[in-house]
Each structure stands twice: as C-alpha cells, then as structure tokens.
Amino acid sequence: MTRNARLPIVGVMGSGAAAWAEYAVPLGRHVAGRGAHLLTGGGGGTMAAVAQAYCETPGRRGLSIGILPSQPHPALGYVLKPGYPNPWIEIPIVTPLGTYAGEADEALTRNHVNVLTADAVVALPGAVGTHQEIRLSQRFGKPIVLFGPAAEFADFAGAVAIAAAIDAVGAFLDAALIRRD
Predict the structure, then answer these.
(1) What is the pLDDT along the chain (181 residues), one digit of tens a residue?
(2) pTM of the model
(3) 13: Cβ–Cβ under 8 A, 6 or more apart, which residues?
C-alpha cells in the first residue's frame, strides 16, 4: 500500500431489527479479511451482527464506522437515538440528518451519507431504510449487490444483482473495488 492510499470502504445496509446472521456474519468476516473499512448505520440487527463479526476477525486492518442518527435535545442540541451506536462501532459519526420514515428519497437523510461514503454497497434484507439505501445506490451510481434470499428483494428483481452466497459477494467486491482505484 502506498503512503497516500486509503483502504476501501464497504457499506453494509440492512435491517435494524433482524440480524440475518447467516449472511451478516460471513460478510463481516469477508470484509475484514479483504482489508477494507466497514460502514453501517451503527444500530442493531444486521448492522450489529456484521460489525461484531468484522471486529472479531483477527488481523483486520480496517475500522468499523457507524453513521448514527440523533434527535433534538432542548439542552444539548442533538443526542444519539436510543440503541446507537452498537458496541462494535469504532468510529461513530453522529448526524443531525433525518431518518427515512415518511420521507421521499430526495429528502436528505443519513442514508445519503451511508451510500455516498461507501466505495461499494452490500445490502442485506431490510425494510424501508434499506430499500431507500438500495435506491440511492442506484441513483448515485454506487456499485451494489443484494445479499440474501431473492424473495426478500422482490422489489428490486432484475434491477440489482442478487447474491445468495458469500463467494458471489466476494466476486462483486473484487470487481467493484478494482473500479475504485
């Protein structure tokens, strides 16, 4: 690695409630093993599962980054929303940006920060916020692959590549991160 080279940033998007551990754990280990930073929304569910697997991988070079939501506080300005960050976030980035609930994709949210900061995006199953991140990745031309059961991504069938196995995600990241250089 040259002096000014930086590690790539792999954004992993997914459910804040369900861990989807059968996908999140191998993905976290894979991202750590390839010498990349991990970026998530810093919450529970998939975000915590992938970050834990990433942080527990021996010999990793990157760091776990969380783009965190906050809420207004009368005395402190903004404070973190409850449950943020999960214990495996090493670089917490607090934003005052809104969340996705009830907002159009044009409304600025922390999901924009997640997508625009990542060099490549891997989306696991999720709900409204994850779906917005998938659409934003398409909108801004970010390399993206969906990782998990195809039925969980029915809204995106034919529009975004779906990987059922970690090897396919690895091949996607190989191609996406080479394009970055």
Answers:
(1) 445 579 999 999 999 999 999 999 999 999 999 999 999 999 999 999 999 999 999 999 999 999 999 999 999 999 999 999 999 999 999 999 866 656 566 677 899 999 999 999 999 999 999 999 999 999 999 999 999 999 999 999 999 999 999 999 999 999 999 866 5
(2) 0.93
(3) 40, 41, 46, 114, 121, 122, 123, 124, 126, 129, 130, 133, 134
Question: What's the token pair of residue 128?
Answer: 């409204």
Domains of the chain, CATH where assigned: 9-160 (3.40.50.450)
Q: In sequence order, what DSSP letters do the residues of 95-123 get, joined into one string?
A: E--B-STT--TTS-BHHHHHHHH-SEEEE
Angle between helices 110-117 and 128-139 (to 10 degrees): 50
* Structure token digits, residue 90: 């090493």
